[in-house]
Amino acid sequence: MKARSVVWLRRWRLLLLLALIGLASGPAVGTAQIFKTVASKQQLYATPSYSGEVVGMVPEGSEVTIVQQSGDWSQVEYQGQKGWLPARAFAGGKKLDLSSLLQGKAVKESKTDEVALAGKGFTPEVEAGFRQKHPELRYDQVDQIEKFSVSAAELQAFRQEGGLR
Amino acid sequence: MKMVAFFLLLVVLAVGGGAGCGTVASTVASLPGVPESVKPAVDIAAKTGEKAVAASREISPSEEYYLGRGVAARILARYPLSKDQALNAYVNKVGQTVAQKASGARPYKGYHFAVLDGTPANSFACPGGIILITQGMLKACANEDQLAAVLAHEVGHVANRDGVNSISQARWTEVATTAGTEIAKQYGGTLGQVVGQFEGAIDDVFKTVIVNGYSRAAEENADRAGVAMLQQAGYNPAAMTAILTAMGAKGGSGGILGTHPTVTDRLDNIKVVAQEANTQMEPVRTKRFQALLKP
């Protein structure tokens, strides 16, 4: 009886180990999710780094399959080509929340991303602290500059008039 | 149960050696099947893993954006934003035309261009995509194609992430290891610490952009990127040579001219990439430039 219990315990531990490895490897369990890119002409990198080799290009609005994630980078598969895309390739430039991918649920962006950013380097909260410390800086004009926009139609007309592409 | 806890910890630590381990470890800790007694150990393992990842990570697009806003705010404290809306709109149209041909990923919130009051001929590329050009530099340009050349050169600096690369390695390691770690959370002052590091990083970039200038390689790469953008957009790529020559003749050293390499070296660098251009519509572009710039 005792011997059978030991065997059962060993098997249980082995199963637990396999299950955890499966969970840790995430997309390898076959629950990969599809996302649409929102930025134009995204380069696909061989490694999760801007200094990595460029292995392809993903046009805006392309559907890519998320394979795995590392920091702000997502490894994706696009038309049979695997490569890494930065967070800015996706809506809002935010890191994708892949936690539910492990459970097999639909992946969606979370507002908690912004909250999580608070503890991860230069964030709106850090900027607010810096602005408080330096009221002489012209953040008001920076905000104004960011409101300058050229519509697609205006740009098209401008290019056409000047014989530009 | 102790064996199970040890086992779980081992698995988490082993997984934690790879990229993105913090997320995985946290997920494991939150699984319903993980015994309560094990969770603290899993949490510690997860947090240790997060620190290692943070220390080796690159600056993210959103961090680059906030850094660039800080650099721009400092520059604007020196040279205020021009109130000429028509001029700002025009510069944005020229800038967006060349920026759409830039290689690499689009910045976190895109490119923005603005004209600054100020007679010194200068132009600045802030990380994250804000590009500033002084009235003095606009006046130094003879036509729209030369303005496009200046803006394309600055877009080249943003696309090549030259501003971000001017943050000292020591400072970035400090940022990456401090932010978000358990030590910072437990001992308080996280925000204050990161604000100090943020200020230091802005200072690094500001000094490079305003005082010291980029490296020779960075300037030459931005020239080449600029020429490529001009060609692709349909501007005359020879405009890059023309504006560099004109600025060199005036003996300036700001903005597009940088502090080094010499103008002669830079002209040598781009002459091999500048190709023939269709200049048929150049007079139309020059006319609209002069309507705004040379009243």
Explain this structure.
The complex is a heterodimer of chains A (165) and B (295). Chain A is built from 5 helices and 6 strands; from the N terminus they run H-E-E-E-E-E-E-H-H-H-H. Chain A has 165 residues and is of the alpha+beta class. In chain A, the strands form 2 sheets. A 4-stranded antiparallel β-sheet of chain A has the order 1-4-5-6, with no helix packed on it. The longest helix of chain A has 23 residues, at 2-24. Chain A starts with a helix and ends with a helix. In chain A, 31% of the residues are buried. The termini of chain B are far apart. Chain B is globular and about 60 Å long. Chain B has helices spanning 2-16, 21-30, 39-56, 61-78, 85-99, 135-140, 144-159, 162-165, 169-178, 182-187, 190-212, 216-233, 238-250, 263-271, 282-293; strands at residues 112-116, 123-126, 130-134. A 3-stranded mixed β-sheet of chain B has the order 1-3-2. In chain B, helix 7 crosses helix 12 and helix 7 (144-159) crosses helix 13 (238-250). With 295 residues, chain B is mainly alpha-helical. Chain B folds into 2 domains: 2-56, no CATH class; 70-163 and 213-293, 2-Layer Sandwich (Zincin-like). At the A-B interface, helix 1, strand 4, helix 3, helix 4 and helix 5 of A face helix 1, helix 2, helix 4, helix 5 and strand 1 of B.
